[in-house]
Amino acid sequence: MGNKLVCFSPIPKTSPKELLPPWLSPSKSKKKSSSPIPKTSPKELLPPWLSPSKSKKKSSSSSSKTEVFDDEYIKQQAQIASKLYLQHLQNNGDNLLQLERSLTTKNTLSSSKSQKKLSKRSRSLSSSTSSSTLQLSNQDAARSNGPENKHFVLVHGGGFGAWCWYKIIALLKEGQCEVDAIDLAGSGANFCDINCIKTLSQYAKPLTDFLANLADNKQVILVGHELGGACISYAMEMYPTKVSKAIFVAATMLTDGQSALNVFSQQACLSELNQRAQKFVYANGNNRQPTAIDFDKSLLEEFLFSRTPSKDIALASVSMRTVPFAPVTEKLTLSAAKYGSISRFYIKTDEDFAIPAPLQEAMIQSDPPKQVFELKGSDHSPFLSRPQALHRLLVEISNMPQKENLKTGLRRHQT
Known about the structure:
Number of helices: 19
CATH superfamily of the domain at 151-399: Alpha/Beta hydrolase fold, catalytic domain
Shape: globular
Distance between the termini: 46 Å
Radius of gyration: 31 Å
Largest sheet: 7 strands, parallel
Strand content: 5-15%
Structural class: alpha/beta
CATH class of the domain at 151-399: Alpha Beta
């Protein structure tokens, strides 16, 4: 808006050369015009492609030729400068903001009156000839960094919802990544009856529907937390071509023929707190199989959020919901050709009481992923307790080449 207003401000009488920036002015050998330039209105100073065609007045033949020549010359030079600038941006995409700041500083710090006049004129020209080019340059620079290939799909754990990723969503979007957080069936803003969920397929349907509707040429990075690990494993088997990488965050990373219940039933790894914090719900009667698992609200902080800020614990206490029981008992069918073709990464949480570190290590050893990372000082909910560290790991993993030749399970990192 500011650039457009400059075009209509009074412009003092100047010669055509004075209207040009120093780096676009004609060579010294060009003869100076002997005839003075008549006073012109602001509209007459506009280039032909900006001036209103209907309201433009006809001028005398001599002055008309001079003005057309000068405007066309300015137009050509501006286009050349714009192309050079675009080429420079393409070669130096990472320095885009620095270039823009340096140009702005030069225009701002010009002290002489002639430089201020040139600045006004150059801004009016750039608003018409270069603005669209610069916008495209910004987009090209962004594409060169590959944000279109960094599309994260975040899948929450049992009892959580898409809400739990709010810090990670903000951090990833600030980095120009595409992000979608899924509410699994009966979780978060998905209000289907938990007690009616009979299979893992039903529970993971919002995720599989999302992948089914994804364009064939698109791939996403699946991030699963806790029971969400079983859900992303199921989705990887169904849509292997639409998943570039899978990241398990303190998650149930199962093997073929294994269920989450098989993992959680390893009582040697589970503490007394783990057992006290969860209670079964028998919607179909006490003599039937449980339909859901609920949490003891008084133990939530100690069990899931021991390192989480109090305001996030308050958010969780009013947002957590019961966990459907049937998906926990279902054994997965995972093949090497589909599930096994996707690079997997595991992020351990060392102060986790819900899925203790020994239990996480047991899953890693049973089917080693590409790489293992460890978040020091993280509770069961690193997206709330250590969001910046988790974000850094997600970005680091996303930047790894898909075909990177790594020895499985031998690389470990601590953060």
